[in-house]
Amino acid sequence: MHNGKARAFTNIALIKYWGKKDQQLILPMNNSLSLTLDAFYTETSVSFSKDYTKDTFYLDGQLQDEKATQKVRHFLDLARNQAGIFKYATVCSQNFVPTAAGLASSASGLAALAGACNNALKLDLSPKELSRLARKGSGSACRSIYGGFVEWEKGNSDQTSFAVPIASNHWEDELAMIFILINDKTKEVPSRNGMQRTVDTSSYYDSWVKSADLDIKKAKDAITKNDFHALGKVTESNCLKMHATTLAASPPFTYWSPGSLKAMNKVQAMRQAGQNCYFTMDAGPNVKVLCRKKEVEDIYHELQKDFPAEQLVIAYAGKGIESLEME
Ligand code: DP6
Question: ipTM above 0.95?
Answer without folding.
Answer: yes
